[in-house]
Write a structure and sequence with these properties.
This protein is of the alpha/beta class. It is built from eight helices and seven strands; from the N terminus they run ααβαβββαβααβααβ. The protein has a seven-stranded mixed sheet, sandwiched between helices.
């Protein structure tokens, strides 16, 4: 079951959530260096990351799925958040420069349709950042954090899914190298552990991140091989 918006909000206000948002946010900014003046859509619960992009001059809106619920954001300005159907976004074709999906794809009942809708609203060459729980990592196994809900992905699975929907991966990384723990001192140490552990293995982080751009050329549908013989069950 997908956590609701209040659960996400409470998590990111706690020390563990604040540390996670800071670490993952650093990786987002590393892969999106030029956002000033760009129209950015956040899908799922992306507020901690949209706030950093907005501080760099991006023009963001936060779209939240109906099952999750929506909250007013930002607090000090006219609302830039809305409740939407993630399979039918209230946007024109080729109308945004970047989409960042956090706590979103892993909860999609139709992941291919979810990504195809992202493809529709992106401008030609537009960018998308997908952040999902990393399969076989501790963050995906523990339900105490939002990363422990929904379907986790491996890098290969996410690459294949995105390529099938004409989103061409440009690179990948992981974040949250240290297993989750609610102890305040433990949360504060997460940033210091992140870089040394990443040296041991790029795929050790609990959050998997793939950034891609929108392809404009068509894809060839993979043909299904038709068997030349049909199996028959013989009677006694």
């Amino acid at each position: 079951m997908q956590p609701d918006v209040l659960t996400y909000n409470r998590f990111y206000q706690r020390p563990l959530g604040a540390a996670a948002a800071s670490i993952v946010g650093d990786m987002v900014m590393r892969h999106t260096p030029h956002v000033s003046g760009k129209r950015v859509v956040g899908l799922g619960y992306s507020l901690p990351y949209l706030e950093r992009l907005m501080a760099e001059g991006a023009l963001p809106v936060a779209f939240m799925p109906a099952r999750q619920g929506v909250c007013h954001w930002p607090d000090s300005a006219s609302p830039l958040s809305a409740l939407v159907d993630v399979y039918d976004l209230p946007l024109a074709d080729s109308s945004v420069d970047m989409v960042i999906a956090v706590h979103a794809l892993e909860h999609a009942n139709r992941p291919a349709a979810f990504l195809r809708e992202i493809w529709r609203v992106l401008v030609p060459g537009g960018k998308v950042m997908i952040i999902v729980p990393n399969r076989r990592r501790m963050w995906a196994a523990l339900e105490a954090t939002p990363f422990g809900h929904g379907r986790p992905y491996s890098k290969g699975q996410l690459y294949t899914l995105m390529e099938d929907q004409m989103l061409s991966p440009l690179g990948w990384s992981t974040a949250l190298m240290q297993p989750p723990c609610g102890i305040k001192l433990f949360a504060k140490s997460m940033r210091f552990v992140e870089t040394p552990v990443r040296i041991l293995g790029k795929n050790l982080g609990g959050a998997l991140m793939v950034h891609a751009d929108k392809q404009m050329y068509g894809t060839v549908v993979k043909s299904r091989r038709v068997p030349r013989t049909v199996p028959v069950v013989m009677g006694p």
